[in-house]
Design goal:
300 residues, alpha/beta, Alpha-Beta Plaits, 9-stranded mixed sheet, two-stranded antiparallel sheet, globular, binds iron/sulfur cluster
Length: 300
């Protein structure tokens, strides 16, 4: 089974126990306004163009066999109806102004590549984390990759927004060591305002995983002005589950390295700063619900 991946990060230390390799699946059903990985939103291969790095050399216009690039006012303009995202132009661009996002992998080949770091995983108690984007938005690829990693003795974590069919979680449950589960809001309307989608299935899937005995760490991205008012509701919801999960409160940062503009997407990042003290206030509220809450800007 083939799938599309926007990046692979080795030696990740914040995606579960030990040293891990994180695989960022490309494509996400949500549109979180605070997303700092916009290259992971779309499900297709795409080109990012960074105008500030362009040397106006015109190489991309001659490399492109499809005639998809023309120079206009000393800058290349790509016709999306002609571009087939072959990435030939990115390889030849002398300024790294054209970046290709999205690599198609066979699950078997990707598992082989990831297994090259098995000794590091074994020595550190780590493994591979499937992330995104939303890894469960490519459920068949995610399942085959997890199965192949498990066959090689490599543990698998799943970093998910929870927006998937229950049947997908049923299939991933026996393959997953730990679910890193995003909880952005309890209020349905707030969730829609922040992500563009309702949260019914997210809450249902979390209940299902909890009652099924899954190992879960909750991630709460704390974005003042957007979902900070959800803190008490999140605390009450989690305290009412059959297991009290550890929750990590993540501080927001508005850095996307110009990727929104490069991809031609509207920049939705809120212009706010969040400090470790801000996150600490949310952590204290969650402690009041008897939860093991940690400050993602300070603690592990
Ligand atoms: S090849 Fe790169 S540097 Fe040259 S015009 Fe194209 S984008 Fe700009
Ligand atoms: S990705 Fe391929 S088709 Fe698209 S502009 Fe570059 S060379 Fe042309």
């Amino acid at each position: 089974m083939k799938g599309i991946v926007s990046g692979i990060k080795r030696n990740a230390v914040h995606d579960g126990d030990g040293l891990r390799t994180t695989v960022f699946f490309k494509g996400c059903p949500l549109r979180c306004i605070w997303c700092h990985n916009p290259e992971s939103i779309g499900f297709r291969r795409e080109i990012g163009f960074y105008a500030d790095k362009c040397m106006s050399c015109g190489t991309c216009t001659t490399v492109c066999a499809d005639g998809a690039v023309r120079m206009r006012d000393d800058l290349p303009v790509t016709d999306p109806t002609r571009c087939r995202a072959c990435f030939d132009c990115t390889a030849m661009c002398p300024g790294d102004a054209r970046i290709g996002y999205g690599e198609v992998w066979e699950a078997a080949a990707l598992a082989e590549k990831l297994a090259q770091d098995k000794a590091f995983f074994d020595n550190s108690g780590g493994g591979v984390t499937l992330s995104g984007g939303e890894c469960l938005a490519q459920p068949v690829f995610a399942r085959e990759l997890a199965e192949r990693l498990l066959e090689k003795g490599i543990s698998v974590n799943v970093d998910t927004c929870g927006y998937a069919a229950k049947s997908v979680f049923e299939q991933m449950l026996p393959l997953t060591d730990t679910f890193l589960y995003d909880l952005k809001a309890i209020d349905r309307e707030v969730h829609i305002r922040c992500t563009g989608k309702e949260n019914d299935c997210i809450l249902e899937n979390l209940r299902y995983l909890t009652d099924s005995g899954a190992k879960i760490e909750i991630r709460y991205p704390y974005v003042p002005g957007w979902n900070d008012g959800e803190c008490e509701k999140i605390g009450a919801f989690l305290a009412g589950l059959s297991v009290k999960h550890r929750i990590k409160v993540l501080g927001y940062h508005g850095l996307a390295d110009g990727k929104y503009k490069a991809l031609g997407l509207p920049d939705t990042l809120p212009a706010i700063e969040v400090t470790a003290d801000d996150v600490g206030k949310a952590v204290r509220i969650l402690h009041n619900f008897g939860l093991q809450a940690v400050n993602g800007m300070k603690d592990d």
